[in-house]
Each structure stands twice: as structure tokens, then as C-alpha cells.
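Hello,

I think I submitted the adenosine-5'-triphosphate job twice by accident. Can you confirm which output corresponds to this input? Input:
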Amino acid sequence: MSVIKKMDHKLSNMIAAGEVVERPSSVIKELVENAIDAHATKIKIEVLGFGMEKISVTDNGDGMSQEDAKLAFERYATSKIKSEMDLSHIHTLGFRGEALAAISAVSKVVLKTKTEDDLGSEVIYEGGNFVSSSQAAMNKGTQIDVMNLFYNTPARFKYIKSEYTEKYAIIDIFDRLALANPSIYMQLSFDGKLYKETYGNHDFYQLIDQIYGKQMTKGLTIASHEVSHIQMKAYLLSPHIVRSRKKDISIFINHRYIKNYRLTQAVIDGYHSFLMVSKYPIAIIDIVMDPSLLDVNVHPQKYEVKFVNETFLSFELENMIKKALQEKNLPIQENLSSIKKEWKQESFTRPSLLNEAPMINENDENSSEPLNKLPYLEYIGIFSGTYLLFQNDEGLYLMDQHAAAERIRYEHYYEALGNPKFAIKERLIPIELSLSNDDIDKLLSYEKILNKHGFNFHQKQLISTPTWLRDEEIDIAIESIFSQLDEYQKLDIKTLRDALAKDVSCKGAIKANHHISRQEVFKILEELRLCKNPYTCPHGRPTIIKLTHYEIERMFKRVVS
Ligand SMILES: Nc1ncnc2c1ncn2[C@@H]1O[C@H](COP(=O)(O)OP(=O)(O)OP(=O)(O)O)[C@@H](O)[C@H]1O
Ligand SMILES: [Mg+2]
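Support: Only one job matched these inputs. Its output is below.
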């Protein structure tokens, strides 16, 4: 007797729903995307009981006829694609024809809708079953109320996290949808209280303020670049505003928010050492390309897309960002209190995650720009044996002597390591390496790269080293090579160059609490002036901060606001 049976529609819809509707925020994403596809210019989202009680999305888009409104809940019913051909030219956010079927399978849905010409109608579905349809008074557009989410799927109900987590997920998706649609007015309210709104006036400065809070556009860099008919635009918030997670790097392709490791990494690499260690920028990347180069049909939630030229695109994106930030000539960090907050408990360890941001070339090697990024500074003394004090017409400057020395040494070593013609010191007496056989084997498997950098081995001995490396720095260099291998499980010229330059420059730089002469101070200042990025040490800590006259006067309450 056959034991295999075809599932009925209801059951298969419920199973499919699990993939589309993970939590309340996924319902909002689907409903808002439908509104955007229906050309809405105003979208209101109302949430009760963090979405488990009710989610209501109202738009002023095209609306549906009563017949379509009923059909819309059928699985695989869509107005957006008609043939296989269309699948390779997706211009809309939805196309799979399954979101409404999935949502209505796990909740009660009341849909009211009206087109320009038809009368308004109302359709009700519950737990995947059609309940009723009737005429209803309504302005042009659509309103969908989703109630009692997951009432019939106890396993999913239990999976729902705390109110805070679910609200946070809703806000997160609202932010992305709003950032992707600067010309749509969007409003989000929780339990009857307006939480956020955007004006839909295409003003990106205002939009960023509305999403991330006031003052966030201070120091905003806008970069754009077109290559092979792909348009890229980036809104790069100042690297002084950082996050501990990568999640505020938003990438949109053809106005669709996507999650993509390579492109996100390209943004981080573009910011490179403008950022502190383990800190990430806030950036909005808007990429527009021919839809035929994209495959959006990877997962029902459509966050993942595949595109042919990912490596190329990542490279172009990283360079665009790097160039724009370098050209911006970012100002010295001004606000002492914010820096204090940021650095309070910072430990200056390397990023510990595997594959996490191996630092790469931050310098534009071909740049012939005259370098002198620091203003005129008059030296006035040393504070706490560590901070060099300077003044000029604009205020007081504190320079961390260790961080500054580190930056100068880093750029020097980085340059030396990048020069293929650098000299090699043959060792008359080879250096015995106190390493295990396994470690030696590990090193030798990267012999080619190491040779290129001037390290030559014979069995357990180093028979040559690069001339820029002092004898007392050899151990640091070997240690640095191993920590690269442990962390990233690979060694390439770029990462090795950066890591070696960082480690050697840090360990040999003037320490804090080390008294230095006036001559040494002037030397540091002049050498820092010539650096390509004098504002941070290679690990991203500030080298110099400025307290303006105004800030000092405010501290003494000479001015009030
Ligand atoms: N707010 C709306 N305004 C107008 N039409 C809508 C709206 N929401 C849904 N529809 C119609 O209902 C259809 C089904 O919507 P549904 O979200 O289930 O599928 P889809 O958007 O086509 O594809 P996907 O499953 O990828 O989202 C849509 O194709 C569209 O024609
Ligand atoms: Mg849809």
C-alpha cells in the first residue's frame, strides 16, 4: 500500500509560510514591498503588541479589483511576472507570488483595496481559508491588517523572541525600506504612537537624520561612480561615528536591500584605517544595474542575490569609497566627549573573527597630492608625559605621542614593504628559529610570499632578512606572520604587508610616558604632516584631537549653549 500522499494546499502553504514569514518584521517587509511595487508614494505601518496582535500596512498605490484581491491570496498568484523570460529581468521587489498566501496561512488577514476605477472591496482570509469578500468604502490604495500572527503554528509562536527583539527587527527593516525609497513617505507607529517617519522628499540628508538621528550627516561623504553601466552611489557617514557591528552598512541593488558578505567587506576595506579596530561604519550603498545581471530568485526572502561580477563590483566599490574618504581630508576629531565615550573600554586587540577584515592597503600609492594635512601648530608643552600640546587660532590640540609615532612608522614600513626593489640582508650567521617542526612546515608552505618580502629560509634557519627590519624586530615579524596565519588561515602579500607594518611600527614606536625632547616633538610633528592619514594610528585610534575655543569656553560656562 502506498504511504506517500500529496499534501493538501493548506498544509503545503503552511510549510512554505515558514520560509517567508519568520517573524513580525518579515510580514512588514512583504507588505511594504507590495505597496512599493504598487507605486505607492505614502506607506503607513501600524504595529500593535510588537506585531503579534496586529500589523496594519496602508498605502496609496494602485489598489486591486475585488477579483484580484481574492486571487492575490492564492499561492503562485502574481501580477509581476508572466513567463520564464521575465524571471531574468525582475524590475519589482516581489515576483514569487507567495507572500500573501504565506502570511494568510499563519494569521487572520483583512484586506481592503480600491483601484482608480473600481469600487472598493474587502476580502478576509483566516488560517489559509477564504472567509468572505464584500464591497467596502475606501480611498484608492490598499490596507492590509494581519492579526493573531502564528496563532495556528505553536512551534513558530514559541520561537518569537522578546518584545524588544521583535520591535528592533521591525525598526531595522523599516530603516532599510525607507533608505531604499527616499521618494516615499513612510511612517511607523507602535501601539498608537508615532515612532518614525520619513518625508519622501528625496532629501538624503534629511532621510539619514530621520533614520539615524540628528547630527549624523555632519561630515557625510557622498561618492558616486559608474563602470560598465553599473551605477554606484555611496552615502558614507563620518568614520568618527562608528558601530560595533556591521549591520549599519546597508547595501541596495536596484532598490532592494540585500545581504552580501563581499560587498559589505568592500565597504569596510574602503573605510580601512579611518576606523578604529573592531568598529564599523554607517554607510548606505545604492547600486543600480541591469536586472539581467542579477539572480534574485535564490531564497524566498530575497535578501540573497547572485550576480556575475561580484569580485569586480567589490573592487570598484572599495576603491570608490577609499578615494572619496581620502579626498575629503577628514577633519581632526573635535568632540572630546564623544571620543571619550567611544574609547572608554576599548582594548586594542586585533579583530578576532576569522575572515574578518584583513587590513589592506590604505594608501593610494599613485597619489601625487602634496601632503600636509595638519594645520599650523605651535608647540606648548607635554601633558602627563604622553600628550603633546599644541595651539593655534582655532583651539587646543592634544597629540598622543605613541599613536603619532606609530602612524609615522607604519607609513614608513608600509612603503618599504611595498617596494619590490628593497634590499635583502644576507645573514653571515643565519638566525636559528626556535620553532617546532610543524611551525617551520607551516612557514615553508608560504615560502614564495615570504621570499618576496626578503625572508629566506634554510631548514630551521633564516638566511636572509629584509634590510628595513632591524635585528631586534625579527621576532616581532615572525610572531606577526604566525598571528596572520592563525587568524585568517592564509597569507597574502596585502595582509602580510599591512600586518607587518602595523606590528613593527607599534612595537618600536615611542611609548607613552617616555620623555622626549623638543627636537623630537618637532620631528614627530613634521613627519606626521607628511603622512597620508595623519589622524589615526594604524589601529584606528586618534593621533590628535582638537578642543575648539568654543568648547573650552563652554566647559568654563563662559558661553551657555
Ligand atoms: N498593496 C498592494 N497593492 C496592490 N496590489 C497588491 C498589493 N499587495 C499585493 N498585491 C497584488 O497581489 C499579488 C500577490 O502578492 P504577493 O506578495 O503574494 O506576491 P508577489 O508580490 O507577486 O510576489 P512575492 O511573493 O515575491 O512577494 C501581487 O502580485 C499584486 O498583484
Ligand atoms: Mg509581494
